[in-house]
Amino acid sequence: MSCEKIYAIAAALLLSAVAVIGCKKDGDGGGGSVSLPVESYIVDYTSARVVVGYESDFDVEVTGLPSWCRLESMEAGAAVIAVERNDGDRRSGAIVFGAGGGRSEFMIVQRGKAIAGDGMIRVDSLVSVGRKGAVVMLAPVYDGTSVTASIGEGAEWIHADARSYATVSQLSFTVDENTGDYPRQGVVYFASDAGDVDSTVIWQAGSDEIYITGDMTLNGYLNASITMQVRTGTLSAGERTKSVGCYLSQSNPCPGPGDMSLMFEYSTDANNLNVKFTTDFSRGVIPGRRYNVRYAVVTDRGTYYSDTYTLSVPGVSAAGEPDMKIPVIFHVYYSRSGSVTENVSAEVIDNQIEMANMIWRGRFGYGVDTGVEFVPATHTPWGEKLPEPGIHRIAVSKPMSFTDDEFVNNADFNDSFNLWDPKTYVNVWVMDIALPDVAGYATLPLVPESSPLAGLVSGDYYFTHPLDYMHGIVLDNEYAASLSGVTTLAHEAGHLFGLLHAFSENGCGEDDYCADTPNYDRAQYLRTVAQTGVRDMSRISCDGDSFLSVNVMDYFYGQGFAITPEQKLRIEHLLDYGILGVTRSDVTRAVSYVDADAPKPEIKIIH
Predict the structure, then answer these.
(1) Whole-number Å distance between alpha carbons of 46 and 456
(2) Angstrom distance (rounded) from CA 494 to CA 187
(3) Helix pair angle (346-360, 488-496), 10° resolution
(4) Which residue among 36, 46, 215, 332 is least crowded, i.e. fewest CB within 10 A of its CB?
């Protein structure tokens, strides 16, 4: 059974059932059956009319219609189902055709409202269907007058329905059954009258000899494990595995690349494989939420998936109203030639913000509540409402890949389009970080000379002059979507508000100026891990004491959920006097005028 069908059965339990009987053929009252040509219909967010053909010698009863669908009419051998426009999140449901005691069902999936871009065509980038085929309805969004669709790769098994071209707002494509062993991908291209081109990849499962299953277990929130089993028969000659793991999504019934992930490198011959993987994880999913999970094996020839499972995450205690809300804007750079992880989803960004708020509000039971919450910006600096709160998507000609110094000091980007006023926003840029094993980095803040803070540069220059460097946070696009990277925003925001690492890089000579964060030698910890092969969350402090790594300003293998009282004091100092300008209302800055020829303070970047 395909992942779409499993998801539809689960979703149908939550939807109100409506029964409609269409009497189109007479039967003899027993041993009936009804057959449908495909197992799923996938439609875009705009309203749609789906014609479902069927074959039966009995009267047909249509049941289980979701509340947003209605049976418009019954024709000879076909039911016409009207689907309402969807301005919300993705939704799905199973619709049952019954006849003379037999029954068949199909899944109907409707995507949420299309996301606006930067003057180009916008379409769903990836659609997954089961091997039995589907009808896929796509609605390109464009501000021009016309869009032309064409089928590239996969033209022999993807067929355009000519009837759909009466309106450009809804194009219908039929996907044939895949009788082959392996998954396949086809591409539907859309070209506008202005020359813009975008495309949708249609991924279809095959009947390959591979079995993948898994289980994700949570004992409370912080004690979790993943177990998955992979068994293969004869695949293509020389095929090798590259990685194994899982993909998760709250909204996508078939999670895959571009969704949240936890993947591990695993290189071996993919043929006749029978292996079981078990790993622990303690962070990445948001408490109180429910996820769709698909386990996956990536080889050098393609990706194989399990069916879709669900994971319900235990909740944690609620927080009261914050003392301060700080708007955040994510500048997401993406190109058509880049990977699917370039243009990260709104769900990935929402997870980053929600996890940061849980940590900064002390909701995991460790540390303190800073009273600070990060909220997605709702408008641009020019007063325009953002189509996606907190997200500014920027199409570029090729993938953005810079080191920290190259980006922060790049004059091509420190304009008002890429760097929004830091007196109003926390700027976060999402791109490929051209540094090994770096999930993110931030610029350390400056403080005025009249209100210094240990460990930070004091200087009044940028309090009286415009910023001429990229002051904010950078997240690696691929790592931001991984389960192990969901706390990255919370960590880098700590740097942006004056917090240093809660360890020494090599030895015990560094100080984060917080007496309640035990210092330890990170280099020695890594040597111990390399020697023993054991990664755990315990540390040995420079004083010889053992402790559990829970602080947000530690990293590698730890929980990263706590902010201490002294760290909160440093954050409050930056809220009062820092360059970001999102200050508390009861504080008035007193900064003297600095001569235009005064030297600029040193800009520091920290990972």
Answers:
(1) 52
(2) 43
(3) 60
(4) 215
Give the sign of the dihedral formed by CA 244, CA 248, CA 254, CA 257. Answer: negative
What is the Cα–Cα distance from 117 to 197, expressed in whole angstroms?
13
Please give the DSSP secondary-structure letter assigned to residue 240. Answer: E
Distance, in Å, from the CA atom of 52 to the CA atom of 62, rounded to the nearest integer, reads 11
Question: Which amino acid is present at 568?
Answer: K
pTM above 0.85, yes or no: no
The DSSP string of 39-90 is: SEEEE-SS-EEEEEE-B-SS-EEEE---TTEEEEEEETTEEEEEE----SS-
Largest CA distance in the chain: 97
CB atoms within 10 A of CB 268: 12
Which residues does the chain have with pLDDT short of 50?
Answer: 1-30, 115-119, 163-168, 583, 585-591
Residue 379, strand partner residues: 385
CA-closest candidate to residue 199, choices 180, 171, 157: 171
First to last CA, the chain: 45
The tokens of 171 are what? 């194009």
